[in-house]
Every structure is written in structure tokens, then in C-alpha cells.
Amino acid sequence: PDLVLGYQGEPYFLLSRVVDGLPQLEKFALLVECTHLGCLVSDEPLGGFACPCHGSKYSREGSVTRGPAPRSLKLARVEVGADGNLQMGEWLDVDFRSRDNREGEAALLL
Question: Do 69 and 53 touch, CB atoms closer than 8 A?
Fold first, then answer.
């Protein structure tokens, strides 16, 4: 992931995936702030993210895989504007990582 100064001047990880052999920017970015006590998370060599201070672990999508973090990493919307510049904004959709929201997961994959 790429670390950028993103939405509201906060640090975010931009994520990409390979589609048909080409890198494609994800439609979301992750705030680099642990939801436990606000430490800055780092990317893990084998995938996902970790808080170096208290041991919380997050999946590639920012879901908690090991506590003490109580919530997933905060999302931001990512778009490429008509001028080719990256635009980030508030995430207004349902959190697709919710276990109760299978519809949101499907929408992200479209």
C-alpha cells in the first residue's frame, strides 16, 4: 500500500489489486490510525496491517483480526477525477466489512 496525506489531511493507505494483469486502485482507502488508542498502524510483510504498540492486527480491508482494537480501520472514498487526479472523501456507503452486510461485499466487487 501507498501512504498518502489524504482526506482531511489525515494519513491513509491507498490500496490496489491486480485485475487482468493490471494494477487497479481500490475504491476505498484506510486511515492509518489504530482504533484502540490511536497509534499509527504499519503494513505487514505477509499482508494486512498491525499496531506496533499494542498488537492489534487488521486484514487487508482493515477489519480487526486480533484485538485489542474494537473496530475496523476507518474508510475513505477514493476516486480518480476526470482530470486524472486522485480525489478522497468521506465514506458514505455502508461498511462492506460488516459481518451482517453481505450485500455491501458484493457491491464492492462489482
Answer: no
